[in-house]
Amino acid sequence: MTDLEWLMLAGCGFCALYAFLTLRAGAARLHYRDRPLYWRGAALPLVLLALAMGVAGYGLLSGRTPGLFGLSAAVGALSAAAAWFIEQEPNRLVRWAYRTQRSS
């Protein structure tokens, strides 16, 4: 593997760590009764993180697909940006999750 591939793999890992810690800090700012709705709404960035780490793991294990590291770094950066946006006002996500829960 080249240095660029290792850098993209590390970038994906750092994005995943940042997004998880940011989402957890946003949940800590909420009232305890709102936290299940928050985590229901925050499932999409967490699924994106799992997808990015899965793609990176597949690329690492197969060794023949260097383009997957760029894809996993991009998806990791997208989920970190979503986590940053969610953390700015966690109640916005709770309101959205409450509206979608009531409508179904």
Number of helices in the DSSP assignment: 5
Helical residues, percent: over 70%
* Succession of helices and strands: HHHHH
Count of strand segments: 0
- What distance lies between the first and last C-alpha atoms, to the nearest angstrom? 48 Å
The major pleated sheet works out as:
none
Radius of gyration: 16 Å
Unreliable runs, pLDDT <50, ≥5 residues? none
Q: Assign an overall shape.
A: elongated
Describe the structure using short key phrases.
mainly alpha; 104 residues
Could you walk me through the main structural features you see in this protein, from its secondary elements to its overall organization?
This protein is mainly α and 104 residues long. Helix content is 86%, strand content 0%. The chain has 5 helices and no strands. Helix 1 runs antiparallel to helix 3 and helix 2 packs across helix 5. The radius of gyration is 16 Å and the shape is elongated.
List the helices and strands and how they pair.
Elements: H1 3-28, H2 35-41, H3 43-62, H4 67-88, H5 90-103
Quick summary of this structure?
The protein has 104 residues and is mostly helical. The chain has helices at residues 3-28, 35-41, 43-62, 67-88, 90-103. It contains 5 helices and no strands.
